[in-house]
Amino acid sequence: MSFNTFGRLFRFSTWGESHGPAIGAIVDGCPPGLAIDEALIQPFLDKRRPGTSKFTTQRREPDAVRILSGVFEGKTTGTPISLMIENTDQRSKDYSDVAKAYRPGHADYAYDAKYGFRDYRGGGRSSARETASRVAAGAVARVVIPEVTITAWVSAIGGDAIDPEKFDPREIDNNPFFCPDPETAKRWEKIVDDARRDGSSVGAVVECEATGVPAGWGAPLYAKLDSELAAAMMSINAVKGVEIGDGFAAASLRGEQNADPMRPGNGEGPRFLANHAGGIAGGIATGQPVRLRVAFKPTSSILIPVDTVTREGEASEIITKGRHDPCVGIRGVPVVEAMMALVLADQKLLHRAQCG
Amino acid sequence: MSFNTFGRLFRFSTWGESHGPAIGAIVDGCPPGLAIDEALIQPFLDKRRPGTSKFTTQRREPDAVRILSGVFEGKTTGTPISLMIENTDQRSKDYSDVAKAYRPGHADYAYDAKYGFRDYRGGGRSSARETASRVAAGAVARVVIPEVTITAWVSAIGGDAIDPEKFDPREIDNNPFFCPDPETAKRWEKIVDDARRDGSSVGAVVECEATGVPAGWGAPLYAKLDSELAAAMMSINAVKGVEIGDGFAAASLRGEQNADPMRPGNGEGPRFLANHAGGIAGGIATGQPVRLRVAFKPTSSILIPVDTVTREGEASEIITKGRHDPCVGIRGVPVVEAMMALVLADQKLLHRAQCG
Amino acid sequence: MSFNTFGRLFRFSTWGESHGPAIGAIVDGCPPGLAIDEALIQPFLDKRRPGTSKFTTQRREPDAVRILSGVFEGKTTGTPISLMIENTDQRSKDYSDVAKAYRPGHADYAYDAKYGFRDYRGGGRSSARETASRVAAGAVARVVIPEVTITAWVSAIGGDAIDPEKFDPREIDNNPFFCPDPETAKRWEKIVDDARRDGSSVGAVVECEATGVPAGWGAPLYAKLDSELAAAMMSINAVKGVEIGDGFAAASLRGEQNADPMRPGNGEGPRFLANHAGGIAGGIATGQPVRLRVAFKPTSSILIPVDTVTREGEASEIITKGRHDPCVGIRGVPVVEAMMALVLADQKLLHRAQCG
Amino acid sequence: MSFNTFGRLFRFSTWGESHGPAIGAIVDGCPPGLAIDEALIQPFLDKRRPGTSKFTTQRREPDAVRILSGVFEGKTTGTPISLMIENTDQRSKDYSDVAKAYRPGHADYAYDAKYGFRDYRGGGRSSARETASRVAAGAVARVVIPEVTITAWVSAIGGDAIDPEKFDPREIDNNPFFCPDPETAKRWEKIVDDARRDGSSVGAVVECEATGVPAGWGAPLYAKLDSELAAAMMSINAVKGVEIGDGFAAASLRGEQNADPMRPGNGEGPRFLANHAGGIAGGIATGQPVRLRVAFKPTSSILIPVDTVTREGEASEIITKGRHDPCVGIRGVPVVEAMMALVLADQKLLHRAQCG
Q: Is the whole-model pTM more than 0.80?
């Protein structure tokens, strides 16, 4: 069953396919009176925009967002905010290969199994183009949570991870990989370029940190902040793993190693001596930075032939021509940030609702 | 905001605290006419029951489930199924330490920050005792999906992982660790026992596989089967990471390594030559086994003193007396299975709803 | 599809059948720190309790409520509140007639058409006994909205309506009909008693007013306060009509007659010169009393034989023996009040969430 | 809290204001493979379109709908269907009166009380223009339920009701009032024209019948079909009352009068000898026609001055210039039909989900 809405109070719904006339999102539940205009949203879309370096897809679109409702005289009215981005660079290419046979790693076979047919043009609804709508909605979410600062970066590409010691947040926007370490960025150039030239692709890990999240946001169990974030991140195309705080590494620790000891703080709340928990205990924010890691698989669209079957069930092989990201995780950075913002905006309203 | 309900159509809601008179669950949306009674649910609770070996908590409770509604003459009526488990072994111990200071790694501080106070007896709502309700609900879910077989096991404890080559599913129930390899189980005995004797605890990784999931269950994007499963698993106490299929390992692969090639099958659907995707592509089941991994942090309740602060913000240290699991991941096995069953039962109804 | 949960943030779920061991409700999303105990809930259940006069069913049950979770040291913790009421007076009567043939006006045929079979003992899930759970949940809701005062009464029985001129709220609890006019109450005695003696039943209209609802609660369109209230009231057994403010009478008015003119007020907000709108404009409360009317059909269980068919489709006729309310609308009064409280508690949290 | 989505599985969300660039709807959860194009939706919008007679608003807009997503090669794909209608006839009139003072009967004061300010141009989000989005979504819903036929009509204007004996469904589309009796239509001409010439307005009652609804759709209690329909109808602008079947008239009946006796049927299900219940028993469809009545208040925008206050709280009076419907209930007919279709499409999927 199709559910294209995310969130409980601060909600957004996205629509649109890669090769339709446009894509978009509706943001519902936004508090009234917040200053929002297109100029505020556009920079986030620009960050995600394709065609900005040879390390991303060569599709070139301005991804210009229009606000169609919910804003009056520059302020949110509290009613649904409709955001639309026109598709302008859809090549009228030949999709007959993709229409006939299933691309392994893609949603092709699964869509056919579910729906009986599929829009095969550029992946249709399963195209990563959908994430532009999330980024637009996420820009609105950020306005709802001015107390929070969100930063994401790529921490590994093709298994080559950054050295945490060399982490410098000021470097993130200085290279085409959102890499916080210029030396690693250099190595990644070669990794990604090699993959691109081989007609292949590579996976990546994206990390995200939100500082300023007040202690108390979140909830126990089924609405655990960990759970909401995991659902949000895992809903992004190509994501196959999520860790909160130490994640899988915590499974190797002993209790006393994993505890985040507390000392009296200067202001509100205690001072924590560690943050293995990623800023969340019992599903509720502790006031520490909320930290998570997200695994992006390598782009499934590659020029290397892979064994497959046709819709009729006959053996075949397929290569996926087109303008693809050799590493879809790179452009995942603004998307992960957007999903973090969208979850936290929702959590802010939810906490205020129950606890005043 | 408190949300103690999980699922979209096949839904369950849990209630109850560690030290209240009882805990329970309501299962709503269950198809009518299914044969269910207490005897069918009890074995799953017995598998999770505390006190069965020295490697789990020494709390001893029968965890006998009662069906209070929704079943008539042995069959589900389609109305809410109320399941109740009485708490019988609540020691009237002294909780004044826990009431006064926050246990690091526990939800104590976060609860106080959110709600202004907390039920400190045995963790209250944040106690892993809540998972008994999930296991009971999960037993009902299994009846909804007879086509699916679900198996979970522990694949690592304290960083010591099983050798996948030695995986033998018949061994899982032959040792107190749900370990599919008897040799590894031997090693774990020592690891867990050492931790227990040190007053410490260890983390664990649980893996789960569901076979028989028909191609087509699931949905794109915000209701991606990956996303629903991640939310479900991450909602379990102590869980901090979830991987679908290869998960984070996929982030180190190249596209052609990560593809799951297809060959003509014998019956319905193609035959896949690999399952890096964990049986899910584009959020939709492919017909392959659905596979995931879950990281459990070490139990936070330990006898080793940890730095903390009191409710008044003064420096203190705390040890957590009581009868705790030295490795909470072990008893997580039936809980992970239950959550898998609950998600898949929901997905079956959702798919039927949209696609007939 | 079974949905036994009502509300968006302040939510409750009910379970249980007329002839099972118990019925109950879970209240989720309640703000923390509110003083609640059984003694606070019981009076509302007592008001609804059967067997208090010859004008209601002769089933006699204490309807004693137990709080099983969510309250610690007399205060709500913010986690789910489980409320349970045991069924104690289930007569082991012969239900073979009802099992074999459908009672017209009852849910019998519809349940069989939907589910393939049904729990025929005392109506099973469709019994008005379910409303006790609502009343218990409603008592909790009232604590969430101390600023609001809710009063309901019967305004017509069997077509005999009260004279609005003689409305005296102090009289409502002085007669077995919740009638605000003692003279009308006298007439109703005869109407209800005649129906009872004839083995028949009569319908009723219940009115409800909530004062103190702050201007601003509610929302436009799909979450119109009118819409939420209509859904709530129409979900009560035997209800077939809902009016907000003037309701159908407004359809006969001209625009200038239906306007509620405003004059400067003394304190917050304007003073309204009329309340045709029932305190709601554009779906949002105006600060005036919220007023609505609810139509209860006559009890379907009657001793007068009615034409029907058997499960096998053969012509038959049926009478419904048992201990039935001759006018189910009377005991609907505390239920309507409870649903009003439940909707308004939800609205309070929703408004706070979006507008701070 | 803003909730602009309706439905549980077959869901739609609307966005847009009277004086923004466009309005629209997203339909999510639609089954795949259904034939849909703009030409199929347009006739329903044309039926609702303003400016078609002197009895409706003189605003003239083509209300041309565009499908932006979710349809591929003429068939629904199972992904979100985005529908957009551009606003083309927004007069740049002077709204300073409305900006300064509150129009009684309108949402003006309530919006300000809730949100702190409002989009005052043409009513903004509270404009009945929003209903065009519902009608477009409703056209999609009809395709989901080909087994059902939905017909609505006006049954009373300004208190002048049709004679049920003279009901002729073929007449409904032969007059500008959707009146099933030409003689009554004549009388209404004068009533509406008088109101219009006086600068006033009149209320109306709309009735709707859905035939072909299979026995079994719907659910008990909180998802009672009566409740879903009541919520849907009450969510329409200007609606203040809903009756299912006999509605308030049932409150005047005795049990034996209100029963719908059954006789053996020819095909599936019994033959009912009456339909007081409006085709719904216990919240579940019985297979009889589903019938309901909806009360529309008179249009609040009138040229007759009404007492009011300014935003600053000073006494004032206001008249509402503009191009208004003298009887908003008339154009409510296609909207009521759309909401009926939207609820029933949702119910079809819900029933299929639970009961297969």
A: yes
